[in-house]
Design goal:
The structure holds two protein chains of two kinds. Helices cover about 25% and strands about 25% of the residues of chain A. By secondary structure, chain A is an alpha+beta fold. In chain A, strands 13, 14, 15, 16, 17, 18, 19, 20 and 22 form a nine-stranded antiparallel sheet that branches. Chain A has a four-stranded antiparallel sheet with strand order 6-5-4-7, with no helix packed on it. In chain A, strands 1-2-21 form a three-stranded antiparallel sheet. In chain A, a hairpin with a 3-residue loop joins β17 and β18. In chain A, α7 packs across α13. By secondary structure, chain B is of the alpha+beta class. A six-stranded mixed sheet of chain B has the order 2-1-6-5-4-3. In chain B, β4 and β5 form a beta hairpin. The chains are: A alpha+beta, B alpha+beta. At the A-B interface, β14, α8, β20, α10 and α11 of A face β2 and α3 of B.
Chain lengths: ~450, ~180
């Protein structure tokens, strides 16, 4: 039975497009999110290119909690809660590395990279009769999935498979996380992860990347200084026509659809990079046919993993820290087979675009910061946010899945889908109910 | 030490150090006064302005504590990108720093990385220093960022120019929401 003192459906009216500010500032609601969303949903943890070899580990987060992504001596990938089962100390305080064991510095319990408890201080003398060490290994996630190199996990053994959880958003991953030529070469992370703290609610980040096409003025200054990789006004090359897609699982993604003719011209300020992308485009036309020009631009996988699939290409997790604080983890990805000069050009472009020093992202964070702050007041909380753009206009599309709104129409359908799903998690206790709830329509029935 | 104890070599060193200190303090003033165009002129056209990230690593792995030059960083700018950053601040609609923040650069512990006493036209030397960058914006939002800097200075005619700047910020998870300021 639901025991929360509020009904999330009362706070989130997606049919009218009005959402209470409480869900962005109320610490009790935040605490409930940790229980109902972050222990049940599939969460992005890392990328297989971060743990290539047996014994490699990378310390990540799932919600507020530290986890260790590791590849054991036999090559199998695991995700463990980063806490000793004896007295709770973090068993790994290094960000990454290679190890045979995780040894706790408190009482010297040690664990294999497969999570098994292998060493206990004074085991023979202190424990009579001896306890069963196999019952006290590191705490492991209930389910894990590797989708095109991205590693995901959930603490809920009743959650559906990751592919079912993604639903039709698999289409976006298949066209967006692949090598740029649409072939089998794959992608890899471009080095280390940027981590920084923003005083805002995590959902501002999630909805921003799910599809907020109306925050153009936020980025006007960076567009004016020609940040883009071809030296023109703007911050990206032409991405074509924008197509918003929303999914009942809570995901929101927008695509850029470019015509197959004429040939694309991108990255004009770097000859080598421009040639590489033209070459990839030729091959993408062969590999993907009519779908070559359909690529996700930006999206959010419920609840808090966002991605950019074109310019820049990046993965972001907005880890919750409190109702009003979020820890951003941004990593960048490139084609595995791209020449080194191309990787370096993209690295520099990506860094001046995104991250805390990114000339685009800086302005987003100011907005999220002070939108959160200005919603904390008693009077402010009495007034809902307005999500009415494109109410009731979403439909179906021949190519891209989900509920679709195409330019020139704009819409806040994607944030509405995200908050509809948010309320369903907050109001239901079982995955059966959650799977039922996602069948209800996003728009009011006529 | 009395004046009579100063060798000509020592005097040359002190003269050079004063010139470098003055140069770095004057640069800090330009930044804190938002006098960005003359600030940009202090950099060579082929400058590398780099702030790598820092990681939690073991003593044994300490060489990997700082991200390498081909890895991600907080900043890894050329002159063109520095100019773009300045132009963005000058648009008046760069909301992350509009209204303008109050920034103070404290530059201290200045040393020469090599034992040189003079710098001829066309020559370079490397200086080390510590920085405290304080930013306060709007009402109470405050960041205090501390670290080390290594600057490669080039003598060109009568002036010094910054040919390379490496900034080591002493944070792993950045505790500021953004980096709109220069270091």
């Amino acid at each position: 039975m639901k025991s929360t003192p509020f009904s999330a459906r009362d706070l989130v009216d997606v049919h009218q497009g009005e959402i209470s500010r409480e869900i962005f500032v109320n610490q009790d609601i935040y605490q409930e999110e940790q229980e109902r969303i972050f222990t049940r949903a599939w969460l992005y943890v890392g990328h297989e290119s971060q743990i290539k070899n047996p014994g490699d580990f990378f310390v990540s987060k799932m919600g507020e909690e530290s986890v260790i992504l590791t590849r054991d001596r036999a090559g199998k990938i695991h995700i463990f809660l980063n806490t000793c089962t004896h007295r709770g100390m973090k068993v790994c305080r290094y960000d990454e590395g290679n190890t045979k064991t995780f040894t706790c510095p408190y009482h010297a319990w040690s664990f294999g990279t497969d999570g098994q408890l292998i060493g206990v201080q004074d085991y023979d003398n202190a424990y009579q009769p001896p306890f069963d060490k196999s019952e006290w290994g590191l705490i492991e996630v209930a389910q894990m999935a590797n989708y095109m190199g991205t590693i995901w996990a959930t603490w809920d053994r009743n959650a559906p498979s990751f592919e079912e959880y993604l639903g039709d958003a698999t289409f976006a991953f298949d066209h967006g996380l692949c090598a740029w030529d649409g072939g089998d070469g794959g992608t890899e992370l471009l080095g280390s992860v940027q981590k920084w703290i923003v005083p805002c609610n995590w959902k501002f980040v999630a909805e921003n990347f799910a599809g907020d096409l109306l925050h153009v003025v936020s980025h006007r200054s960076v567009d004016m200084v020609r940040l883009g990789p071809s030296g023109d006004e703007g911050r990206r090359d032409d991405y074509g026509k924008l197509v918003l897609t929303a999914y009942p699982q809570g995901h929101g993604i927008f695509f850029g659809v470019v015509p197959l003719e004429p040939k694309r011209t991108e990255y004009a300020v770097s000859k080598i990079t421009a040639e590489y992308f033209q070459h990839c485009w030729e091959r993408r036309l062969k590999n993907r046919g009519d779908l070559a020009g359909t690529c996700p631009l930006v999206g959010t996988i419920f609840p808090n993993m966002s991605f950019h699939a074109q310019q820049p290409r990046t993965l972001l997790v907005s880890h919750p820290r409190s109702a009003t604080e979020t820890e951003m983890w941004r990593s960048y990805f490139v084609d595995k087979e791209a020449p080194e000069e191309v990787k370096q050009f993209l690295r520099e472009y990506y860094m001046r675009y995104a991250g805390p020093a990114g000339m685009t992202e800086q302005d987003d964070m100011e907005n999220w910061n002070y939108a959160t702050a200005a919603s904390e007041g008693t009077i402010a909380r009495r007034h809902p946010y307005h999500y009415k753009a494109g109410l009731g206009i979403g439909g179906k599309h021949d190519v891209v899945p989900g509920i679709v709104t195409e330019q020139p129409a704009s819409s806040e359908q994607n944030p509405r889908a995200l908050y509809k799903r948010w309320a369903e998690y907050m109001d239901t206790d079982s995955w059966d109910e959650l799977l039922d709830a996602q069948k209800t329509p996003l728009t009011a029935q006529a | 030490m009395t004046g009579s104890g100063l060798t000509s070599e020592r005097l040359a060193y002190l003269d050079l150090m004063r010139e470098i200190e003055d140069f770095l303090y004057a640069e800090a003033d330009l930044l804190d006064e938002r006098d960005y165009d003359p600030w940009l002129d202090l950099f060579t056209d082929d400058v590398v302005y780099w702030m790598p990230m820092r990681k939690n690593v073991s003593f044994e792995d300490r060489a990997k504590e700082t991200t390498a030059e081909d890895d991600l960083a907080w900043f890894h700018d050329d002159k063109d990108t520095l100019i773009k950053r300045v132009r963005q601040l000058q648009t008046g609609i760069h909301w992350a720093d509009e209204p303008i923040s109050r920034v103070a650069h404290v530059i201290t512990n200045i040393r020469l990385a090599e034992p040189v006493t003079s710098l001829a036209d066309g020559e370079k030397l490397t200086t080390k220093c510590r920085f405290i960058v304080y930013r306060n914006r709007l009402e109470t939002e405050t960041d205090i960022l501390v670290g080390r800097r290594e600057d490669t200075l080039l003598r060109t005619g009568d002036s010094l120019k910054i040919a390379r700047r490496k900034i080591l910020l002493d944070q792993s998870v950045l505790m500021a929401k953004n980096l709109t300021m220069f270091f």
